[in-house]
Amino acid sequence: MDDLIQSLGLPESTRVYQRVPKKMLTEHGAATAADKRQIQDGVDEITWLAALKPHLIGVPAFEDEQRQYVELAVLGLTLKAGAKTGRLVELLHRAVPYPVMLLTTSDAGLSLSLAHLRTSQNEADKMVLDGELLAVTVPANVPGGDALEAFGSALALSRQPQAHLYALYQGWLDTVDALDIARETGTFQPSLTRVQAAERHAALQQCRQLQAKLLQLRGQAQKERQLARQVALNQELRAGQAELLALQQRMLGVAT
Prior knowledge:
single chain, 256 residues, alpha+beta, six-stranded mixed beta sheet, two-stranded antiparallel ribbon, 9 helices, 48% helix
């Protein structure tokens, strides 16, 4: 986690390093008794690492009809063994009124998560998650050698869009998504534009859906005893493999 924080290249003026009591997450993020138990049993420590405000980083705030980005937060979350990582990460993102880059240490290792926020339609003073929460485990290594080093460099604050805080945060999202793509392609390659980032993300989702389908087809092919059906399944598998290769090329930004 320390190496990743260092990679962000945050100004010293943004550093907070303040421990956050678990009861704050319980009070502001737990919707049910089960959530409260998970927080009590699963959370070891929450640390507010940095607060990125316009006057500290020279990036303007952002506001439109749905959202108001006046500050970005970098938080650290340490979970106990056996904790339900996914739910606790989501609860923390929901509890903080600012968009968060969350660094989580758990049984699975170190993960990064981000999620856009918007104003609640029912409660104007409340922020809710806007779209999917992106959570990616940082692998011990990625096929391709220098992928993790390249990712750390691309994550730096100075490498993100500087138009406003919303664009900056989207830049972080796209960079973390590129790391997720590297797990499939073996190559870390930051997206050059927002449009390209969206296209690569869509290809990644299709890739994983197809991989699940191919796994199911292989299982069916192994159990199948009718020759004609085996041939049909193998043809479907070959077509799926070709489609998978095309998706991997799309994730690499290569036209097919």
